[in-house]
Amino acid sequence: MSRARAVTAPLRHPDFRRLVTGRTFAEFGNAIAPVAIAFAVLDLTGSAVDLGLVVGARSVANVVLVLFGGVLADRLPRSVILQGTETAAALTQATIAVSVLSGFASIPLLVGLSVANGAVSAIALPASSSIVPQTVPASLLQQANAVNRILSNTGRFAGAAAGGVLVAAFGSGWAIGANAGLFLVAALVYRRLRAARPERSGRTRPFAELAEGWHEFRSRTWLWVVVLQFMIVNAVAAGGILVLGPAIADEAFGRAGWGLVLAAETAGWVLGGVLAAHWRPHRALAIGVVLVLSNAIPLVALAKAPNLVLLVVVMLLTGGAIELGAVAWDVSMQENVPADKLARVYSYDVLGSIIAVPIGQLAAGPLAERWGREPVLLTGAALIVAATLLALCSRQVRGLRRLTPAPVS
User: Where residue 70 sits, what CATH number does that domain have?
Assistant: First the structure.
């Protein structure tokens, strides 16, 4: 089998095709949302503190409900969960769009709708992350994760580019309305997805199921060490990129340019996914952890040289590195965690990875006002480097090997 056919082999499976089609539309919408919401808030109040409050509220809801999402995903058909959550996401974004276009948007309203949207996302995340092994044979898991992420990231690339253009040309309200329409399309595609929930030996009470998932999570040192790393990295990146980034861009090179910067990152994700489809190192997790260092580079660029061309190049390279690490992480979990507990373990992964994100988002604005943007961004970059070096001190992180052999080409 040729390399190209080996990479695209998962697309021969109907459920996998439906999954990646729905996720591509959903990610297209997800990429429009942060650009549109950021400039809707800046147009409303001009305050980075208010922007941090709105995006932080969504992250708080993620943190509070993601474990519940993991229990649901191990109890119910994950395809049904995805249908419902995409429909709910379309409704919340449509409400935000109407409020902006009709002139009655306010920070309390946007915070409330962001909480609702974050709750929907929390329920969807474990189901979305754990459904891939149900749609393809185990021998195609590496390619399936890579193709899934390539197509999802293609949607993100298109959405990030479209978000900046839509906001600049038509305003943030219409951009958020387009975001809602894409979520609705994703929900319709997921209606045809027939992946069943994994077989389970029995059903217990929700808290007992959470305890079972926690046991699986904490019993693997490599797993919780990397999650602790991402607790720091994601909090720093969320504050630096999502809160301070739009404010710096608005002053330096404009809103359409910021959309191009985010699009460059997603283009890097696509390129990284293509490389990951052929990339089969035995110690993939350790290499992926090292690649996390790349998250520090955009923060340094924003602090020292907020130039459009430089940021586009930096975000392209950073996106590729992040994607290689993300595929290594997904495959490591899917190969080493039992299928009937995978969604709950993913929920602990997500919880740990995002629990500090609201702190980063809410703190970025006030810290920048007190100390200045440059010191805050450079300190964040130093924290990312420190967290990565500490993760590499774990022998399990450095030594974990792939279990599934590569298919013969």
Answer: 1.20.1250.20
